[in-house]
Amino acid sequence: MQSRSWLMRPFGERSTLIFLAVLLAAMALVTLMHLAVPPGHSLHVSAYTVNLFGKYLSYALLAVAVDLVWGYLGILSLGHGAFFAMGGYAMGMYLMRQIGDRGVYGHPVLPDFMVFLNWDSLPWYWHGFDMAGFAFLMVLLAPGALALIFGFLAFRSRVTGVYLSIITQALTFALMLAFFRNEMGFGGNNGLTDFREILGFNLRSSETRLGLFLASGVALAVGYLLCRAIVTSKLGRVCVATRDAEARTRFLGYRVERFQLFVFVVSAMLAGLAGALYVPQVGIINPSEFSPLFSIEIVLWVALGGRATLYGAVIGAILVNYAKTVFTGVMPDAWLFALGGLFVLVTVFLPRGVAGLLSLRLRRRRDADASFSAKEASA
């Protein structure tokens, strides 16, 4: 009964119900406008736009994962792009093994880039990725294992604050340099691309793109509910206590590093899932996803939307990436300057993000209504 109440607790929150309702309505609306409205109509949503929305939802799940550790645990991770990219590479390896003719035993032949580099056999770590179940499992286990090893060493050594942020950034930078090497067996600087099908479905068809969009929405809803269940439980209260007063929480007898490690691993696995959903929708995964700049950009999404709210991270991810899509189409070279300016504006004028601004306005409205009701009652 306790586990059931722990899992069902988020459904008792008004903010969670509103978030799920808005997400479900948006998914249904996009689906309806894509399938029911004929092409050429002003209200028709094209397959390209559906693909773009699916990418936004993948980014939103990544932002929720970062908000879980930054907003509720106080860990400013500047390396979550590494977990995102590892999940993406796991999915990319599966998609690459679906390309081309089958070998003698029904297994796909070597990927094209390995043939180009004169490799004569498949590396041991590529085995099993021709099976969807194994590949989808590695989407979660690969980033989770990396987070487990890194987090165990960092939290056991009590590395905190800016030092932990720098180490996470160094981690993703080191992985980026490693994946750029052809000897690693991941396609070098070109990465993995030219995907054809997933689970037997053509990736270029509009039906598959719509399915990936819906899968991204479902994953976002499940990830959001999981994070809400964590932060509203006793575990979440310990995490917040650790964020606000780590030394005092340790003094009370809590093994803080265990709580940090568990939440950090869960966050990494969610980031890996986001990467796996992102790759088939954009059609490529390369070492640039490990870029420290990308990880910093994720933090900006969360800061803009509102830290320690989860739904604010979703708002921030969608707003920034939509702005990026529009801005890079007009002035692509100026996007980084706009991103830097946006960070300054958020820091100065929106320290609690868009979600904090909305909460402040709702609170003022409730206070005004309460004051008006009190005056009427006294009159």
From TrEMBL:
The chain crosses the membrane at residues 71-92, 104-126, 132-155, 162-180, 210-227, 259-278, 298-322, 334-354. It is a multi-pass membrane protein. Its main location: membrane. It is found in: Cell inner membrane. It comes from the Bacteria. Keywords: Cell membrane, Membrane, Transmembrane, Transmembrane helix. It holds the Pfam family BPD_transp_2. InterPro entries: ABC_transp_permease, ABC_transptr_urea_perm_UrtC, LivM-like. This is Urea ABC transporter permease subunit UrtC. It comes from Billgrantia antri. The lineage of its organism: Bacteria, Pseudomonadati, Pseudomonadota, Gammaproteobacteria, Oceanospirillales. The gene is urtC.
